[in-house]
Amino acid sequence: MVRFPALVEGRFIRRLNRFAALVDVERREHLAHVPNSGRMAELLVPGFRVLLAPAPQPTTRKTAYDLAIVDIGTTLSSADARLPNHLVAEAIAEGRLAEFADYPLVRPEAVYGESRLDFRLENPVIGHPAGICYVETKSVTLVVEGVGRFPDAPTLRGVKHLRSLMAAKAAGHRAVVIFVIQRGDAVAFTPNDAADPLLGRVLREAVSVGVEAWAYRCHLDETAIVLADAIPVRL
Fold it and tell me: How many domains does the chain contain in total?
C-alpha cells in the first residue's frame, strides 16, 4: 500500500509538456509535475478534478505540486507511473501474490540483455525449482469499457523489455510482465493494438514462447492505493 500525503484539490487546465501541467488551485494557476510520460488523454481533460501532492519545502522545484490522482467522474485513477514497482514489490514481499510465493528475495533493477528490468526474483535454496524470475512492470491508466489497455502511445522501450524477457526465458529463467492498472474499474486487460500494434505482436509472441503476462487492478481512494486482485489477460 502506498499512502498519499495530505492532498490538495484542484482542477486540471492543460498539459504543457511530458512532465508538466497547469492546474487551478483555489482560483490560482500553478505548475504541477506529471510523474508519467504516457499520453493519458483520458485522464488529462480540462476541468477534471485532480488531487495534488504539495512539493516538499523548502524546494528549488518550479512545480508546486505532483499530480497524484485524477477524478474522472466514475472512478479515481492514479496518475503516478512510479507507483507500480513499489506496489508489486510490496505485494510479493507480503506474500499476497501466490504466483510469486517461491521467491523470498526481490532485487530491483536487474540488467538482462539490453534492458534494465524492474525485478530479479530469487529463491536462495540450492536446487529449488523456482530458480530465477525476471519481472518487468507496466503502468496502465487507460480503461475502455472495463478493459485496461497498454500502451496509450507507441513504446519501443516496452518492446525492448519484452524481447529481453524472451531472452531470459530462452536461457531457462522464468520471465514475467505485469500490467498494473492503477484504478479499480478494469475487469480484464488487453494490449492496445490501435496505439501500438508492434507491442501487441511482440507481447503475443513472448507469451507464445513462455513469458507470463499478468494483470492486476488497484484499489484506491484519496488516502492510499494498493495492488488488488488479478484480472484476465486477453490476447
Answer: 2
